[in-house]
Amino acid sequence: MSLNSSSPAAVIVLAAGAGTRMKSSLPKVLHSIGGRSLVGHALDAAVSLKPEHLVAVVRHERERVVEHLLAHNADLVIADQDEIPGTGRAVEQGLEAIGSVTGTVVVTYGDVPLLTPETLNALVTEHQNAGNAVTVLSADVPDATGYGRIVRDDSGLVTQIVEHKDALKIAEETGDSTLVDITEINSGIYAFDGKILSQSLAQVTTENVQGEKYLTDVLELAREAGGRVAAYVTDDLMEVEGVNDRVQLATLGAELNRRVTQRWMRSGVTIIDPSTTWIDVDVELAQDVTIKPNTQLHGTTTIATGATIGPDTTLHDVQVGENATVRRTEATQAKIGPNANVGPFTYIRPGTVLGEHGKIGAFYETKNVNIGRGAKLSHLGYAGDADIGENTNIGCGNITANYDGVNKHRTTIGAEVRTGSNTVFTAPVEIGDGAYTAAGAVVRKNVPPGALTMNAVDQRIIEDWVLERRAGSAAAEAAQKARDKS
Question: Is the pLDDT at 225 greater than 70, yes or no?
Fold first, then answer.
């Protein structure tokens, strides 16, 4: 057997179902695991085969689903399923959208997110090398309850697929449990000879209990026409598991995450507690990254060599540089430079850029701010719409007052600046290099380089104010006791 198959003529992804068991206003195929929609996972696996045509068949919430599909893959062909129900009709309309095809046609589903390119390629390779008319992707399971059974003849070829309820009925009527005892099940994923598929679908009717046009009927028609019908068995049941409700969504999501974390650990990443670590499929991690418990890495987050992330940290689309430390932090669409230090209890909003050796410390919030190399925002403050120069130290409780009620304004703080506790920068304002601010300063005017700015007011003490104005309070009682002792 060759290691790789020829590219199929088409891959058809069925994504027309309503998914009523999800009990959701969101179409089933748009629910996500691992940071990607179910149908997004399916499309990416299909694309790996490099088909001549990639088709998605839609119906339920058509406009919403199509918008998502084309955003994921602009070259996708959209086919609409009409009023005739059934997978056979869906595939037929998928074929009609691209015209007649010769060669292999693969049929898969938009709710089977763990199916890998490797398994799809193996299915197509088996199909083409054996010269099959139809090749079914099957799996062996300990308990086949609810699944269609693969029935083979003495030579190992597939003779039919018997649904679970039909196997039970036959066993009840005949006393023969052979079909019920079969553990090889149908995944519903196939490779077809395109010409045979088109000819057979034209003969499939809706004359059955459900009134549907069944894709499985093609197998019998292909056999009757002398075609070879076989099955390729995957040893990984989870790859062919579909999502029908939110329990299955969570189960497959957890399994996908287990596989993702395992892959990264085998690539040289230390994950202290994989059971509490969630990593999306598009995240990139370098060797010798350390991930501590209760960490979630989402979107296109990238972590460079030697960085330590967590515990209790969530990053969305964040770039973290080499040897940086990020702990107990929520960050989105930000850049954290090499050897930088973030956290604990830090909120980093979009547009934040922290330079090399920089620091954003405890109980700090940042947004749309450039923080220079070696600059430190250590604790209890807010920096928004600002530029902060190299090696500047921002004191405790500082904020940039960037919003005037209508517009946002920018604060520029130079290099080697030292700001006192509880300084407020009323934007727009500029602080020159090497300048200082005194504690409690409210900066409304630009500060020249090397200057000190303060708001000096003599301290005023009003004796007995609490005793007179807060008589009867706990503070007044404490003050009176202190006075009596003196």
Answer: yes
Peptide bond preceding 274 in cis form (omega within 30 of 0): no
Q: Which tokens belong to 115?
A: 């199916």
248 is in an annotated binding site: no
The residue among 315, 314, 338 whose CA lies nearest residue 325 is 338
Q: Where does 195-258 show beta strands of DSSP type E?
A: 229-234
Tokens of 269: 């990443």
Give 128's contacts (C-beta < 8 A, 6+ positions apart): 5, 6, 104, 191
Which sequence positions are flagged as catalytic? 379
Cα 237 to Cα 249: distance, rounded to the nearest angstrom: 15
Q: Is 14 annotated as a binding residue?
A: yes
Q: Is 204 exposed, middle or buried (0-12, 13-18, 19+ CB in 10 A)?
A: buried
Q: What is the mean pLDDT of residues 216-237?
A: 94
* Digit-coded pLDDT (tens) for 100-132: 888 999 999 999 999 999 999 999 999 999 999
Helices marked H in 131-285: 164-174, 178-181, 194-201, 217-224, 246-266
Mean pLDDT in residue range 341-363: 98
d(CA 27, CA 442): 52
* Rounded distance between C-alpha atoms, residue 417 and residue 388, angstroms: 9
DSSP string, 88-132: HHHHHHHHHTT----SEEEEEETT-TT--HHHHHHHHHHHHHHT-
Cα separation, 189 vs 111, in Å, equals 12
Give me the pLDDT at residue 2, please: 39
Determine if residue 16 is labeled as part of a ligand binding site.
Answer: yes
pLDDT tens digit sequence for 282-293 = 999 999 999 999
